[in-house]
Amino acid sequence: MKTIIEPFRIKSVEPIYFNTVEERKAILSGAFYNPFLIHSKDVLIDLLTDSGTSAMSSNQWAGIMQGDESYAGSPSFFRFEKTIQDITGMPLVIPTHQGRAAEKILFSIIGGKGKYIISNTLFDTTRANIEFSGAEGVDLICEEGKYPSIPAPFKGNIDTEALENFIKDKGAENIPLCIITITNNSGGGQPVSMQNIREVRRICTAYNIPMFIDACRFAENAYFIKLREEGYANKSIPEIVRELFSYADGCTMSAKKDAFANIGGFLAMHDESLALKCRNLLVITEGFPTYGGLAGRDLEAIAIGLVEVMDEYYLQYRIRSTEYLTNKLIAAGVPVMQPAGGHAVYIDSKAFLPHIPPHQYPGQALVGALYLEGGIRSVEIGSLMFGKYDADGILVPAQMELVRLAIPRRVYTQSHIDYVAEVIIEVFEKRNTIKGLRITEEPAMLRHFTAKLEQL
Ligand SMILES: *Cc1c(COP(=O)(O)O)cnc(C)c1O
Fold first, then answer.
1. Which of 83, 191, 313, 402 is buried most deeply by CB count within 10 Å?
2. CA distance 20 to 232
3. Residue 434 in 3-state DSSP?
4. Residue 98 Cα: closest atom of ligand 1
5. What is the pLDDT of residues 181-228, one digit of tens each?
């Protein structure tokens, strides 16, 4: 097989500002060893997130110019609406400024004290919006999804036996929704199989519980189904996507992921009375129902991106880039989550830096080392992000100490990715010299964004 090439030519470029290890040393300590406090101009390869960081196409930029900014009834909205109706088969489409705004509206209506919302794994903003409503979020990930180093084709699946037991235990009347996250972002970008979605649908129907999809990476998930699930090899991506949405009563989406947009999101559904309640809330929080927190140009860019993302050559390149980096790291003995997910590579920093205990934040130490060595920005998903303190002020570590390298869509080429692999492998070779960290300042909530640290 020949090299899989990037399925685009580059018409407009952004410079990378090079700096030296010495300069980065000063930048890193000046940013208190927190990548969120580093200015993006001081970063060579930015793998902090794949959210809102995609490169838009020339067609999307053309759409931006054609965006109609009328307050009500803009043709840009009707294009957005029709595109989403065609892709999902859902007739009622509500635009929001981001995914979390769609979640806030949905869970304000269906959440509340004493209720449970079930998922494979809830994304942080989804969980936060559920909990803010007073309801409880419940993750029922399948057994194979719990072990980072053991490969399996669909590690994002819901444990359907646990789902049925949970419903019987808590009572269907207390469960207003089951929401499947595709791909499973917080669980390493692992896909969910069509069979699992179908099975969850069957259970939800039996107990009369609505089922939604958190559709942020619907196209990446569909491509995994095509590659890995029996019976889908000869189906087109739009066909697979249409089947996948056909099992759901509705969906939430962040257009900052699989719509290549820099901002945006939406809610889509079948239920007229629920949509009416959502639109009533939309008007007081986001905006009028034909723009909902977005400009007409954003609606255009999203409509175009949603179609572009289902191109099979794009998806092949996308999934292959992540796998390519993962495989290079595996070959060099670097401990990573397996198999590769859709949008990111996850390094197991507990295994990478066994000499640094969790209370010295091995993930954050590795994030710093990758920046120092090669100007790569990544993010810790471990005890800095999820650690809590017990009554005596002792750190209760997170279950895993991961470092996530999220790959922005259509932004970096194979040589950038080769460079990333080289830097990680170099850092791995001198891992014994990496030192742990200590927190000097932290806020009460979401501390990873603003905490200050120093080297031990
Ligand atoms: C990003 C994301 C969200 C939230 O979307 P925002 O646009 O960042 O508000 C929700 N769910 C998943 C799975 C995500 O990846």
1. 191
2. 48
3. coil
4. 7
5. 999 988 889 999 999 999 999 999 999 999 999 999 999 999 999 999
Atom of ligand 1 nearest to the CA of 255: 7
> What tokens appear for 52 in the block?
């809102």
- The CATH-assigned architecture of domain 21-50+311-455 is Alpha-Beta Complex (3.90)
Distance 72 CA to ligand 1 centre (A): 27
Structural domain boundaries in the chain: 21-50+311-455, 58-308
Q: How far is the CA of 122 from the CAs of 184, 282, 389, in angstroms? A: 8, 23, 23
Q: Tell which phi-psi region holds residue 227, choosing left (phi > 0), alpha (psi between -120 and 50) or beta.
A: alpha
Q: Which residues of 279-303 are buried (b: 16+ CB within 10 A; e: fewer)?
A: bebbeeebbbbbbbbbbbbbbbbbb
pLDDT per residue as tens digits for the range 135-184: 999 999 999 988 888 889 999 999 999 999 999 999 999 999 999 999 99
Query: What distance in Å separates the CA atoms of residue 88 and residue 306, rounded to the nearest whole number?
Result: 11
- Of residues 243, 249, 379, 407, the one with CA closest to residue 319: 407
CB of 221 closer than 6 A to ligand 1? no
Burial 316-340 (b: 16+ CB within 10 A, else e): ebbbebbebbbbbbeeeebbbbbbb
Cβ neighbors of 43 (< 8 A, separation 6 or more) are 371, 375, 376, 377
Confidence of residue 390 (pLDDT cuts 50, 70, 90): very high
Tokens of 229: 């699930």
pLDDT score at 300: 98
**What number is the average pLDDT over the span 96-101?**
97
pLDDT tens-place string over residues 257-306: 999 999 999 999 999 999 999 999 999 999 999 999 999 999 999 999 99
58-308 folds as Aspartate Aminotransferase; domain 2 (3.40.640)
- Mean pLDDT in residue range 398-402: 88
Query: Bridge partners of 265?
Result: 96, 254
Going from the C-alpha of 316 to that of each of 5, 206, 234, the distances in angstroms are: 10, 37, 15
What average pLDDT score do residues 409-432 get? 97
3-state secondary structure of 204: helix
Rounded CA separation 385/373 (Å): 23
| Nearest residue by C-alpha to atom 3 in ligand 1 | 99
Confidence of residue 74 (pLDDT cuts 50, 70, 90): very high
Q: Compute, in angstroms, the gap from residue 256 CA to the centroid of ligand 1.
A: 8
